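Researcher: Go.
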Amino acid sequence: MAASSESILDHIPLFAKELLAGGLAGGFAKTVVAPLERLKILFQTRRTEFRSAGLSGSVRRIAKTEGLLGFYRGNGASVARIIPYAGLHFMSYEEYRRLIMQAFPNVWKGPTLDLMAGSLSGGTAVLFTYPLDLIRTKLAYQIVSPTKLNVSGMVNNEQVYRGIRDCLSKTYKEGGIRGLYRGVAPTLFGIFPYAGLKFYFYEEMKRRVPEDYKKSIMAKLTCGSVAGLLGQTFTYPLEVVRRQMQVQNLAASEEAELKGTMRSMVLIAQKQGWKTLFSGLSINYIKVVPSAAIGFTVYDTMKSYLRVPSRDEVD
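Model: Structure:
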């Protein structure tokens, strides 16, 4: 049985192993922090009910109106997106890293290599999976009590999406391909530095871990959590802009339409206050630490299980 398992693993291409390891890491990490992700989206998009409730008040409100499953609203779309996203993100990071080393063998060594490869891989993953991120945000934005949902799928004159397929179909009918990529610009502006810095900090911290502790789960969790925390801090306002652009047609508002990343950021700061650009940041800190830590740790563990050769062997 063991020999059969070994022979199967030996015939799986390297990129497929990295794709599988990344997808499993992303899906597992995203599910663990799904309730915090839901709360963060509601704060970022400034739903009236959550503006002054605070974290504990918001938790009670969701529990009362939607029950336990309310904390996981939109998580199906989130996991459906994160598995291919994380798989592409980690796999393309490794591929870009190898390509850059082949093209610039004497220039791109060290942390700069991880920064560049991480940035490119983040942009690649976003372009392939963005519509699912948009759908996840729209589903998470909804506040729906099952008793108030009528047959036509409306509640208080607000359209309710019944699931991933329904939301995808209606979004496409409303705006076509452009509608499915609404808010992608600030996402790309944010993901390039975030993904690059995340990999940069993670790999740089791992290099500084004493040899005896390099395989320690705790060491990997620590490196991953700090990397995610530092990377997210620098790019958070762009995420707020993206979320507000994604749900703009769902929110009843007389404010000017958000168009263009930097213009939208300035407009939000002027109309809603600069603090809005950091709305939900405290929840994000609570969320991003376990998310990044679990993601990196599961990815490295899966690479070992799938017997992905070390970078020294591949490079």
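Model: The chain has one domain: 11-145+162-306.
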